[in-house]
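lol so apparently i was supposed to do this last week
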Amino acid sequence: MQSSEIGHAAQLLREGKLVAFPTETVYGLGADASNPQAVRRIFAAKGRPADHPVIVHVHDANDLARWARDMSPDVERLTARFWPGPLTLVLKRAASVIDEVTGGQDTVGLRCPSHPIAQELLRVFGGGIAAPSANRFGRISSTTAQHVRDELGDSVDLVLDGGACEVGIESTILDVSSGVPTLLRPGRIGAAEIESVIGAPVTRAGAQSPRVSGSLEAHYAPQLPLLLVASIDLDRVVREQSALRPVAVLARHARPRDSRSALWQIAATDAQAYAHDLYALLRFIDRSGCSMIVVEAPPERPEWDAVRDRLMRAAAASSSSLAREGAQGTE
Ligand code: TXA
Ligand code: MG
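anyway here it is w/ threonylcarbamoyladenylate bound
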């Protein structure tokens, strides 16, 4: 990418415009994190409720004091080990952080992305960039520049194209704003890795955790209803559903010769490769003409936590529409 394009992007941010940019996880929809009108434009573009907090992206850990206060010693250990990289830290907000960014809460989410285009944009812009994932509210995140254009069209002023995102799913979110480090969203960086750095157990988010829109059931959902099915039940469910409608299958092994599914998509057997491809595959299947996605449940091992989390949310978001359909007896 030309440095003039990054310079242009930084200038647009200064003017209060929206710039979508690649990170190592997913594409972000960025605005100047110090400009309330600009941040409000993010919510309008995404169709997202205005009281949801957005992550502020920073160039490096030296910027922390500008955004956060009362940081525990864990923060230095975590940033030294994982930044730049796919870890978002929720911290007590500094007094100057605007309510549009925090959703009115006393905390702020901070992340230092490692993607070279994101790094360069942050360096040239010189401030923090507020950026949620670059998708419409409730939809799956964008992992290519084309996905961003498909999702947001003209409501974004510039899309920086950095190709396909390496990680493919959103960052790990760790709340270290209180004495109890709490995992709000699993990601590439796992709980065990974090525990080894802070030397203490990490709590999983419970019912009283702060507002995280990624925690809503309706999140990370493709357009088609999605069924998440244990490997042992896959053949039976695909047979039953295929009798009713064209079914797409996402599985980690080849199509059995007698399968009646309309589409059989093989996914990676390695968790990181699976995550890298997941959203692009779901978008592809959404456009396939099938009317349901049946996904083989991932293994119960920790390295699959983040993928399992996204698939369970997608399945939960679908279950209400499937239940409605069942009640009406339609096919
Ligand atoms: O990988 C990522 O994190 C991507 C890239 C673009 O950096 N960003 C992303 O942003 O996934 P978003 O807004 O789609 O998801 C961030 C989640 C949201 O669910 C938001 O509610 C939560 O982080 N969040 C942000 N600030 C928070 C805070 N202060 N307390 C609790 N949750 C917060
Ligand atoms: Mg998002």
